[in-house]
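User: I'm writing a short report section on ligand binding and want a predicted complex to refer to. Could you take this sequence and iron/sulfur cluster and write out the structure as tokens? A short remark afterwards would be nice.
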Amino acid sequence: MSFAIQHSTLRDLYDKVVAGERLSDADALRLLESKDINAVGAIADFARQRKVGNRASYILNRYINYSNYCILSCQFCSFARKKRDADGFELSIEQMVQKAREALALGITELHIVGGLHPSLPFSYYVDFLQALKALDPRLQLKCFTAIEILHLAWLGKRSVEQTLVELKAAGLESLTGGGAEIFRKEVRTQIARGKESAEEYLDVHRIWHRLGGRSTCTMLFGHVETLADRVHHLSLLRALQDETRGFTGFVPLPYQPENNGIPVSTPPTGFDQLRTIAVSRLYLDNFDHVTAYWVGMGLKLAQVALSYGADDLHGTILEEHIFHMAGAKSPQLQTEAEMVKAIREAGRVPVQRNTFYEAVKEWPIQAPDGEVSASRAKSKVLKVNLATA
Ligand code: SF4
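Assistant: Sure. The structure tokens for the complex follow:
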């Protein structure tokens, strides 16, 4: 037991975790309110080590936003545009294929594709782009759409949610993304995402997808107008669905970014708040294997620290991020594999390249052999040059 825990008022919660007892909502709230960040982190680190051992993962992926036109206007959103806006865009299927082809040449294994709720693109556009992308390489994993996009496509295609998911799966969809969960409490949702699907609808889309044999991640957008109790309520609904379906592969807490939107919160959550939230996610979500430190929102330096506060995953290379950057994220738009491997090694973990389902693709030695880092840096340089000319 670490010194931090031995002398902490949270010692009883450590004992509970060691005994394999599930934390209550009150326990989670106590941890979120605690200023004893070292003890919170040490307990979460114990739980992380017991769950996944000494490995920490990342994925080689590319984000593609097919369009930022959206019929909704969620107050927190800095990404959506209307047709009248000069900086609105929509990609043709050929443009998406081109982006995917370039990224495949760089070794990606996953495309992560989301967009706004487009007012007029037909259902066939979505089926066609899944098929076209899958045809590039059957090993390429397609992680696409948030729950609200699925509801939109069901409405657009005049199909049930289940039928929509069945058809998208047949076209190549392999995982839903976890975006759009925000904060489930209705009062908060009204303040930050009026018009968006309810918590029940979000959870239902994932429930149906899991029953079809699909897998997905889930998220929580934190650090805006919600209370700490709202965060616990949010986590409790995710934990309950995971008990029911076991269909979530991982949880991705998303720190709120405050620029260019209508929410009256001017700063992102502090470093302590982000680390505590990751730690509590690891401890409370005892039925989840993986918790991600999302470097786009946290910055790679804090995400690296989070590997000692319960996180076991750094997400991916991404290559072209819009949603967080339009909201003021100061991180770079892409991360190289070499930088993530280095960050994981320095945190004392074994770097593992994973696929969409968190299965190992490649495991690196924990120490960099002579010459390896320079080789990786050379590859990173090529990657940057390719993107600059894309
Ligand atoms: S968060 Fe999604 S649904 Fe809401 S306005 Fe932005 S793009 Fe549209």
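A remark for your report: The chain has one domain: 48-388. The chain has a mean pLDDT of 93.
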